[in-house]
């Protein structure tokens, strides 16, 4: 009964995420031109995208270099 109370509404997670995300995008776009919104969006998200790509590459390369995948 304990975990069932916590996971009772788990199926709503994706929908709730998109509702909150849409609301945040709407608030961040309010009072801005399309150009201003896109510029703020790119400067906010693009650096995090490249950090995530770089970290993924480094972790993957370390995994490849330090683990032997040869099959005998």
Describe the structure.
By secondary structure, this protein is mainly alpha-helical. The protein has one domain (2-66). The chain is built from 3 helices and no strands. It has helices spanning 2-6, 13-29, 34-66. The protein is flat, with a radius of gyration of 21 Å. The termini are far apart. 0% of the residues are buried. The model has no long low-confidence stretch (mean pLDDT 87).
Topology as a string of helices (H) and strands (E): HHH
Major sheet summary line: none
Q: Let me know the average pLDDT.
A: 87
Shape: flat
Q: How many E strands?
A: 0
Low-confidence stretches: none
% residues in beta strands = under 5%
> Which radius of gyration do the C-alpha atoms yield?
21 Å
Helix content: over 70%
Q: What is the helix tally?
A: 3
Number of domains: 1
Give the gist of this structure:
The chain is mostly helical and 72 residues long. It has three helices and no strands.
Which characteristics define this entry?
3 helices, 72 residues, mainly alpha
How are the secondary structure elements laid out?
Layout: H1 2-6, H2 13-29, H3 34-66
């Amino acid at each position: 009964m304990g975990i069932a109370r916590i996971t009772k509404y788990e199926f709503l997670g994706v929908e709730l995420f998109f509702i909150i995300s849409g609301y945040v995008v709407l608030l961040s776009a309010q009072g801005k031109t399309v150009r201003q919104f896109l510029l703020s969006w790119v400067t906010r998200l693009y650096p995090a995208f490249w950090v995530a790509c770089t970290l993924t590459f480094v972790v993957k390369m370390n995994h490849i270099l330090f683990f032997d995948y040869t099959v005998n």
